[in-house]
Amino acid sequence: MKRQTKGSLGLPFGVLALLVAVAPLAGGCADSATDALHQDVAQLRQDLNALTLSVHRGRGDTEAVLGQLDRRTREANTESSRQIAALSTRVDTLSAEMTRVSARLDELSQRIEALRRELASRPAPAPPSAGPTPAAPGAAGVPRSSGGPTPEQAYQAAYLDFSKGNYPLAVAGFREFVRRYPDAALADQAQYWVGESLFSQARASLAAGQSDKATRELEQAVQEFRRVSLNYPRGDKVPTALYKEALALLELKQTRLAQTRLQYLLDNFPQSEEAPLAKERLANLGG
Questions:
Q1: What is the Cα–Cα distance from 74 to 84, expressed in whole angstroms?
Q2: Complete DSSP assignment for 108-132
Q3: Element (H, E) at 201
Q4: Domain 149-287, CATH class in plain words
Q5: What are the sequence ranges of the domains in the chain?
Q6: How far is CA 79 from CA 73, 93, 247, in A?
Q7: Which distant-in-sequence residues (6+ apart) come within 8 Å of 135 by Cβ?
Q8: 3-class DSSP state for residue 12?
Q9: 260-264 long-range CB contacts below 8 Å, 24 or more apart?
Q10: Which residues contact 196 (CB under 8 A, 6 or more apart)?
Q11: How many angstroms separate the CA atoms of 77 and 71, rounded?
Q12: Quick one: average pLDDT of 201-223?
């Protein structure tokens, strides 16, 4: 019996030959599998990069949209605050005006009643042959000039011009009253209405598009309102004049000075009708 020849590894030569033939094929399969794996990894990496880029773009778009929304919200809030402040100023002005008109009506009613009683108590006029009669005193004990209007009539004429919107005439009339009757009971009110007439005239100029003219009139109104507290510190119109001076200063964008005048009003006239308005205005201004 013949012994089968073996190779160096102790394997038959037939098996060795088969292994030698199969080895290249196995190597080729391994190389193909590795290449396919590399391609899959490369594709996954490419897909991951694309996804990352998409996420970054999406995040950038989201931040841009959020930024636009935030900016629009701030703009809307600013506009709303401005409109609310304007409405608040208008309401305050109307409220103060209504208070003044009501007080004025009460005052006129009292004066009419006083004049009625005075006329009823006067004796019948003497006949012309009895000689001249001494002139009756004017309002608040201020003598009236011969042949001229009484202080009351001068005041009423100026106020009538104001009520009709004839502000330049009202300013001239009230200034003439203060010049001629500086010690009259109505002197502080006349001084106040000089400032109020100029303030109203400034708003009319602003509505007509005459901003420079309005600015000059507002500056004059501030000075006239200030004269009320300087010349008539015990007058009834001092709190109102302080408040309107502050409003005119706000129109002139002099916020810090307006806050000072409002605080002065609160400190010295806490029980006045204008004190709550001044307190609210200070709160809105952050004072």
A1: 15
A2: HHHHHHHHHHHHHHSPPPPPGGG-P
A3: helix 187-207
A4: mainly alpha
A5: 38-118, 149-287
A6: 10, 21, 20
A7: 143, 144, 146
A8: strand
A9: 262/287, 263/287
A10: 162, 221, 244
A11: 10
A12: 95
